[in-house]
Every structure is written in structure tokens, then in C-alpha cells.
Amino acid sequence: MHWLxxxxxxxxxxxxxxxxxxxxxxxxxxEQFAWVRHLLHQSYxxxxxxxxxxxxxxxxxxxxxFAIHADEEYGHCDMLTTWMVRHGLLGENEDINDxxxxxxxxxxxxxxxxxxxxxxxxxxLVGLNAVSEGVAADFFASxxxxxxxxxxxxxxxxxxALVDVEHAGECLEMFPENITPDSKEGKKLAxxxxxxxxxxxxxxxxxxxxxxxxxTSDHAANKEFVVA
Length: 228
Description:
The protein is mainly α. The chain contains nine helices and two strands; from the N terminus they run H-H-H-H-H-H-H-H-H-E-E. Helix 1 (3-15) packs parallel to helix 9 (184-206) and helix 7 (121-149) runs antiparallel to helix 8.
């Protein structure tokens, strides 16, 4: 396996160790899903930045791949909204911004926009596919059995639990073998893995009111990042 793919998988395991995942796995009532109000912001914004990525891409192969990803994301926000209304987690006349996004959610989404605007195609593949789809795969794989057990199952959760696993896996095979960990390109991509995962940990924990700590002392920037 490519060293970068191994790094992505390692960071994903670290993210799965944060408080958010323990909270959702042990949920016993729908009131414990109030955090989906914050997921709604991410679900709304993510397709927009993927469309921006596609529109800015010049490479034919990457452009084709990015177009497919962007197209597959559309409609998911509407599916989530319908599910939330059905289970009383969102009023029919409520606006998405009635509950504003957490600062950590804004930071994670802002970093994605920065990735689209400043990184090359490979950097975007790492941040928006390998990491983002990977974390999403772990996210939905953890939640789908819980909502099903509570009688709140829906196509939204079932679909993502299957599709995001495929998305996360396929791009791990797209890393060029000539990119080494010690190269300038390798160090840049490793930093994207690190930053994206740390920001996702912050974001997810913020949804349940927890300030995140994720230990990454033996990787990338060689620091432990803590939100004060």
C-alpha cells in the first residue's frame, strides 16, 4: 500500500477515537441526534465546493473524476432535511441558519475552500477525497446501525454507508508511486492529511459541545493540536 494511503488510514483511526463517535454509538433516543443540525450545514456546503473544484480544474482526467464526485453529492442535503423533519429534528418552516454552524464547522469548510483555491489536483484529491470521503465512510458506518436500531433508518444513511466506502477506497489507489515521504510534494500532501483530519475532529466534537483534542505527535507537524 502507498505510504500516503497508510497515513490516511492511520489518521482516520485517530479521528474515530474522539468523543463524538463514542457518543453516537451509544445513543438511545432521537434527542441525542440534535447535532444533525450542524451536519446540515456541512451537507449543504460540500456540494458547492466540489462544484467549484470541478469548474476550476484544467486537467482532463481529474476534471472527469471531480465532475462525477460533484454530481453524486447533489440531493443529499434535501434527503437529510426530509429525514430531520420526519423525526422532529427540524421544523418544516425552519431555516438552516436558525441554528448557526459551529466555528469548527466553518473552519473545516473554510479549509476545504482553501484547498480548492490553492492546492493542485493531487492535493485536492487527498484532502477532499481520500480524507474527507474516508472520514465520511467511518461517520456513516458508525451511525447507520444506530439510527436503524432506533427505528429511524432511512435511505440517506444507508446510501452513504455504502457509497462513501467506495469513494474512500478508490482514490487511495490513485497516488503516484514516485511521490516519496521526504519529497517536497510528499511533505505537502502529508500536511493536508494532517490538517484535514484535525479539523474534522474539531468539527465533529463541536457538534456535541466538546472541544477536541487529537494526538498527532508522531506525524506531520509533530505537534498535539488542542482547541483552547
